[in-house]
Amino acid sequence: MNKPPNGVVSMPREVLHLLIDLPGEADMETLRAAGDAGGNALLDAFAQWSKQSATDELADLPVDVFRERAAEFLGYCGWGDVSVASNSDALIEVSIADCWETRRKHGEQSGCHLTTGLLHGFFAALAGYELGVMELECAELGSGGSCRFVIGTPEMVDSIYAEISAEAGDKG
Ligand SMILES: [Zn+2]
Questions:
Q1: Which residues constitute the domain of residue 26?
Q2: Domain presence at residue 96
Q3: What spacing in Å lies between the alpha carbon of 55 and ligand 1's midpoint?
Q4: What is the block-wise mean pLDDT of the chain (172 residues), using blocks of 10 residues?
Q5: Intra-chain end-to-end CA distance of the chain, in Å
Q6: DSSP letter assigned to residue 158
């Protein structure tokens, strides 16, 4: 099982097709939609990749093994140093150190929208129902360290967002 060379990010074809047609400066919604379009393909690639190292079907894996393997796969795709964990307030938390998207240099970086879209498409395809994804912290936006994403039901993510907004309001 060979890793892609350093600096190369594997991206589903569906995403690339959409990216090619984008104007120079795409907005957040467009980037998220492009990432989201690749969710199914990414999940298929994960299932295939996982089969090469184990005979178990994804659905049969214990949750902690699944999380470990998903993190390994996303790292293998060139996303960065990925970890996947449970979070009491959400279903899943994904943390990416050295996130590939923060290394794209362009004028106005406002977070990792393609990654957010890809995570949404991937986990929604896996779960089989609608999920919300939010980037809690972005390395590019001053937090340094890792980009952190939470994935949960839309209600869970809304309430996390509301909490953060309230906290930000208290400070300001
Ligand atoms: Zn980020």
A1: 13-171
A2: yes
A3: 34
A4: 72 90 84 95 92 76 88 94 86 93 72 95 92 92 84 93 86 58
A5: 50
A6: H
Indicate whether 51 belongs to any domain: yes
Instruction: Specify the DSSP class assigned to residue 103.
Output: G
Quick check: is 122 in a domain?
Answer: yes
Token pair recorded at residue 6: 């350093």
Query: Number of folded domains in the chain?
Result: 1
* Residue 128 φ then ψ, to 5°: 80, 10
Integer-rounded Cα Rg, in Å, for the chain is 16
Domain membership flag for residue 7: no
Ligand 1 centre distance from Cα of residue 101 (Å)? 7
Alpha carbon of 57 to ligand 1 centroid (Å): 31
What pTM did the predictor assign? 0.89
What's the CATH number where 33 sits? 3.30.1380
